[in-house]
Amino acid sequence: MERKRILVVGGVAGGASCAARARRLSESAEIIMFDRGEYVSFANCGLPYYVGDVIKKEENLIVATPELFRSRFKIDVRLQSEIVAVDRQNSRIQVKDCRSGQIYYEKYDALVLAPGASPIRPNMPGIDLAGIFSLRTIPDSRQIKDWIAQRNARRATVVGGGYIGMEMTENLVNLGLAVTIVEMQSHVMPMLDSEMVSPIHAELVKHGVTLRLNETVTGFKQNKDGSISAELKSGRTEKADLVILSLGVRPEIRLAQEAGLEIGRRGGIRVDKRMRTSDEKIWAVGDAVEVKDVITGQWAVIPLAGPANRQGRIAADTIMGRNAEFRGVQATSVVGIMGLVVACTGVNEKTLRNMEIWDKPVPFEKVYLHPGHHVGYYPGASPISLKLIFSRKDGLVVGAQAIGRQGVEKRIDVISMAIQKKATVFDLEEAELCYAPQFGSAKDPVNIAGMIAANVLRGDARIVHWDALEKSPAFLLDVRNPSEYRQDHIEGAVNIPLDELRGRMGEVPKDQEVWSYCAVGQRSYYAARALSQYGYDIKNLSGGFITYTLREALDFISE
Ligand SMILES: Cc1cc2nc3c(=O)[nH]c(=O)nc-3n(C[C@H](O)[C@H](O)[C@H](O)COP(=O)(O)OP(=O)(O)OC[C@H]3O[C@@H](n4cnc5c(N)ncnc54)[C@H](O)[C@@H]3O)c2cc1C
């Protein structure tokens, strides 16, 4: 067997996956994995929960120790060993032993760069004050925990409302801290479309979280009592005992850049489908690289553990001469926020509109639905709000977002696989999914999403959306029960309950477009089907009153 010398820089998700896979493929390879930190293969995804005391012991964050890598995989792990340069001409790396300061060189046949990404820390006054933290490593989480305990911290400011911001907020609230989130966009979780986010805002507010949306931090000041004031663009200040910066991450490209490897437009190391960089002896994986978005076809930097692991495996395969290719990313993700589960996959409407391809040349369409996570007759059903985005041309599914308390990630995972396999809404309609009353419905929410979308494409259901309501010239028909209507309704809507509709059709104008709605869009679809067969010009409000009120809640909270 050919004896290859494989050096891996970075020993967590991408690096460790690559090293272990390489060993499985070759007993003869010499594999050395370097990490500048004190650990390899630790659970960065668990760090917020360690801060929040959900994960009690630090050692539980260690997925595999250097000893295990040595004994089980015959991999030489070198901790606190920073790679400071790549000498491509001589196929060697320069290693600095962080404990002794000693510098030495190691030669490679194949080099894998898996250095991850570093948290963004904008250059602004006071950014280096004690008490302002980013979260990436076990020592970071330990410092945050110690700070909270030693200062008896009561208030925290979380800057940035993405995944890590949300997870840290949840954990800090669970520790009893009052949390303020400062987010420069109009809503938290910017990967979702704005109307989908209002349940998250509502849940955060319910848990006492203060939201400062459309706000930017311009600097920090230390107060006499040791607290930190975040100064906001609006002139407001937010005082807290600690600040968590969760502004996203930037690919670690220094090594690659200095070695003259190609860096892409999105700021990540450019690789081909086999995870090979512009140097045929060097591979790169994980948060440090940019890869193709399977839907938009554009280069993207998607810092998620799943892609990092798969890329590590693919790099090992190709180093060992196998024919493996990375399929690209579609940003499938899930986060828990105060009991809410928020998941998405594929592209969102905002992105398609920004790319100016929402309506051209191939238009897209969306449908909303709010089915129970399992059948209503079995106790404990809870709704999932789901938005499905698809091509109007052929029904190709391109994105989905869902929020609920149970069963959310299952639906998004199914749709994610559908997207990867280039399935259409007609495929979702026909998908055979497991069912028993406590787990789902004979028509699963994924099937229903497919059916609604397929109805639209077949012309069986014409739909309108909440964002068209404001300027609507249509006759608004509310087909819910009178008690629902009395509780709340869209201004100007006329209530004719579905069960009375056939007897009261005369009250619906025939010379005007009619938009029907109910709570979630199902009864009004029945109404639309009936009325259209009597010659009415009728459209159904997708997702019904619930989608409409999602948007209203967003307006309310943003004020
Ligand atoms: C708090 C937190 C929560 C997260 N939660 C989730 C989640 O729930 N789901 C999800 O999908 N993703 C999550 N992620 C993202 C996920 O952890 C990353 O996408 C994944 O770890 C990337 O793997 P990687 O191997 O590219 O980089 P990393 O896991 O960051 O590993 C890179 C390693 O390289 C080392 N290194 C860097 N430069 C050098 C050098 N020059 N020499 C030696 N060593 C070096 C670093 O010390 C580091 O240990 C989370 C991340 C964080 C920080």
Describe this structure in words.
The N and C termini lie far apart (67 Å). Residues 555-559 have low confidence and may be disordered. The protein is built from 15 helices and 31 strands. 28% of the residues lie in helices and 25% in strands. The protein has 559 residues and is an alpha/beta fold. Helix 1 packs parallel to helix 8 and helix 6 (194-206) crosses helix 15 (544-558). The strands form 8 sheets. Strands 3-2-1-7-19 form a 5-stranded parallel beta sheet. Strands 9-16-10-11-12 form a 5-stranded parallel beta sheet, covered by helices on one side. It has a 5-stranded antiparallel beta sheet with strand order 22-23-26-25-24, sandwiched between helices. Flavin-adenine dinucleotide (FAD) is lined by residues 9-10, 12-15, 34-37, 44-45, 47-48, 82-83, 114-116, 135-136, 164, 252, 255, 286-288, 303-306, 308.
List keywords for this structure.
alpha/beta; binds flavin-adenine dinucleotide; disordered C terminus
Oligomer: single chain
* Helix percentage range: 25-40%
Residue stretches low in confidence (pLDDT < 50, at least 5 long) are 555-559
The number of helical runs is 15
**Strand arrangement in the largest pleated sheet:** 3-2-1-7-19
* Number of DSSP E strands: 31
Which small molecules are bound?
A: flavin-adenine dinucleotide
The value of Rg in angstroms is 27 Å
The computed structural class is: alpha/beta
> End-to-end span in angstroms?
67 Å
